[in-house]
Amino acid sequence: MTRGLSGELRPAGAVELAVVERSGLRESSHSGAAVVLDPGGEVLAEHGDIDALLYPRSTLKLMQAVAVRRAGARLEDEELVLSAASHVGTSEHVRVVRSILDRAGLTESALQCPADWPSDPAARRAADRPERVFMGCSGKHAAFLLACSVNGWSTEDYLDPGHPLQLLIRRTVEDFTGETVLHTGVDGCGAPVHAVTLRGLARGIGRVVRGADDDSARLAEAIRRFPWALDNRTVRTVIEELGIVAKSGAEGVFVAGEEDGTAVAIRVLDGSQRPLAPVALSLLAQYGTVHPADAERVRLAVTEPVLGGGVPVGELFPVV
Length: 320
What we know:
- By secondary structure, this protein is an alpha+beta fold.
- The protein has helices spanning 61-70, 77-82, 91-104, 121-126, 138-151, 164-177, 198-210, 214-225, 233-242, 276-287, 292-302, and strands at residues 15-22, 25-37, 43-47, 53-54, 184-186, 192-194, 196-197, 245-249, 253-257, 263-268, 306-308, 311-318.
- It is globular and about 60 Å long.
- InterPro entries: Asparaginase_II, Beta-lactam/transpept-like.
């Protein structure tokens, strides 16, 4: 098992990934690191320090969902996708989260993620108060609780790093990334988040999307069938239009993978989300099987516009 280099991504290890132009003048840029791996895990392209440690944030959910199935929680279809989701709190998302809790024989009070408002505007207007089930990670937490119920593990401390479920998740992350976990923090939802390298993250995602085992194969197929359940509009559009598996994470992390296991992982140093999908699409068009014309069409559909007086006056575009 390989080990990543110590230390987090710093400006010295970052390169320019995307720029924003307004009215013919470069206005800002986004720096970070990016890597593309082939189906065998070999590097096709690297930009910046791909061996610095980073928190995968919500991109880790893909491997956490695999671990939940390994624990015996046989989630399928939309329930399986919600176990890996950063959902936006619509009534359909909440319905599926509650169905997972019902299978565990538990109520929403067992969730240990923070209470939150739905991020979907319509659902937020309809909500009376913040609730834990509205939180974008509630599907993952419900799946955690189901895994505990299936195995007779305690549910009061299911987020403790020493809990049997969290130990299984850690081993699964190590299996898929090919790296020993050297550091663990606390994610925004309260769950443990394991630091990995960008290289290791891409390796892990490649193994998930190509279906390295039955559990990951079922997850990847479910995401392609139910992309509405997984993430925000940008990620959903990428999946629906191109048939690849993609996932975003807080603080500028993004992963995407083709069915054969070709995978890209990106970390933007300033934590911004806006350049992530455009950079990923550019790299897959260069080194994967995504047709450049299709990549450009989807890039234009998901890229935040540069407006002046309400009309387009510039654009954000990848430079890698």
